[in-house]
Amino acid sequence: MFELTLQLALILFAVALLAGFIDSIAGGGGLLTIPALMWAGLPPAAALGTNKLQACGGSFFASLYFVRKGMVDLRSMRLSLMCAFIGAAIGTIFVQMIDAELLELVLPFLILAIGCYFLFSKKISEDDRQQVLSPSVFAFTAALGVGLYDGFFGPGTGSFFALAFVSLAGFGLAKATAHAKLLNFATNIASLIFFLIGGQVVVILGLIMLVGQSIGATLGSRLVVTKGVKIIKPLVVVMSFGMSLKLLWSQYM
């Protein structure tokens, strides 16, 4: 049974701060916050819903920082934002009706593939290159698809968005990370709305963790701007391998 104490609130605040820092750079912060919320005594659905509330803080402040630094053009992202939001909303509805076992089996290997791509690809750099998809096609394919995945399942969403921006939109890594965080904010908001409707959010705890997420995300975002590919690439690789091992351990151990 869940009971919020001062000690527990401080622990989860610290976890959220660290998760926000990592998430703003490489994604994967949910690997820390969701297990922590379940350790605190929340049932799985409430842990996922509360996690979405606190994640909104981190993704919002990271996005705000990137916009202020001129790394994101909001006007050009409107269609992708809308598609990511709609995708996440649909995914959140579907997850309540469809068996996710197949996705659980495939997901660790997908995330591992992302880590290998970032580790071995010579195309990863700070420089933009030729885009493969137009902004409109990107919105209706990558943004919508990853948004659907985030609402349906979630782990590694930031990494999937970043990979899409690098490989399909032709963005440099720092720019891709900034835009990935913006779309991740849209998907977090969409999922949160449906979790709130379902009564699966512990609001007070979520708000406490949201403050920690916001601080961590702001600090991490500054490193993206100042250090760029030097810090993003190795952290994406580490988090991708870490997520894969965590998911495989959960399934087979």
TrEMBL record:
Localization annotation: Cell membrane
Transmembrane helix recorded as keyword: yes
Organism encoding this protein: Shewanella metallivivens
Pfam families in the cross-refs: TauE
Protein name, entry field: Probable membrane transporter protein
Family: Belongs to the 4-toluene sulfonate uptake permease (TSUP) (TC 2.A.102) family.
Membrane-crossing segments per the record: 48-67, 79-96, 102-120, 132-152, 158-177, 189-211, 231-249
Topology class, membrane: Multi-pass membrane protein
Keyword Cell membrane tagged: yes
Chief location bin: membrane
Keywords (A to Z) from UniProt: Cell membrane, Membrane, Transmembrane, Transmembrane helix, Transport
